[in-house]
Amino acid sequence: MSSSTQDVIPQLDLGNTYGALFIGAILAAMLFGVTNIQAFIYFQTHRGTGKTFYKLAVIWLWILDALHLVLIVHAIYYSLVTNYGNIAVLPVLVWSAKLQIPVDMLIIWGVHFLYVHRIWIVSKGRSRALPITVSIIVILGSGVAISLVWAIFQCHLFTDLIRIAWATYSTLSTICFLDVLIASSLCYFLATSRTGFSSTDSFITNLIGYTISTGCVTSVFSLTAIITFAVMPNNFIFLSVEFLMVKLYVNSYIALLNSRYYVQANAHNIGPSEFHHCHGVDSTELRICASQDETFPASRKGIFKQPDNEALHLTRPVQAAMRPIAVTMEMSA
Asked: In sequence order, which residues have a C-beta less than 8 Å from that of residue 93 and are 6 or more positions away?
């Protein structure tokens, strides 16, 4: 047993160290279950469609989310079960705990780039200055994530995380900033795409509220991780918060893809003279086609246009009954 390890062991309180990790792992497993439900709903509501890109994105996020949970469980199992009674192992940063960090960064920045892709889509027909600016900022922000990955592999004990606090603070701050930037950009394009019809404007308002809420949730968890690490650097509570933060990124994005599933219960309020579900409808990629659509600017008519051709396929596997939806399906040739 090395002298550095002996010095660390008396400082360990299992309650707020491995106890906090254990609780965080349980909550992360619950959120992974929600991810499974979200993915199931997405594939059920998009069966037989040609949205290959988004299906691959959901599969990729699900794989990374599952790997993230496996690494968390392994790190805890290795310290508490495999090495039961060997207190010298408790302060050691096992390989799976280190590998979890690059997986975290892949998930978070992967979701950020997927959101940037959506901003690019909804900005069609408008100035590309804002989407390009957001893209550059997200790309530059990934350099901060790389620095954290490099720093974490230089650590051997959990107490070494205090030594790389600069990397932790900078990464979490960058993540929080990007959340606000992306949510604000999406809200801007949504807010400026109002058509003047109460039904469509109400729908857009719901999407804006959903975008703000998802951005706020991930930002709040990023700030919570920063605060808990600053206030309690000698325990693992901030790591538990980080477990949940990563899971929320996956859930929030897949839930955004499923937003049509959640809001279509209110779609019966949309009259066919005002609103048409067009060929290629997606959660936030609606092509708003009113009877007076020739009066709309091109930027508004294509604001939610789906880039990939697909046939509309609506299913509600969870509900036994579905209220009638007064929309017209406009299928392209």
From this structure: 155, 156, 157, 158, 160, 161
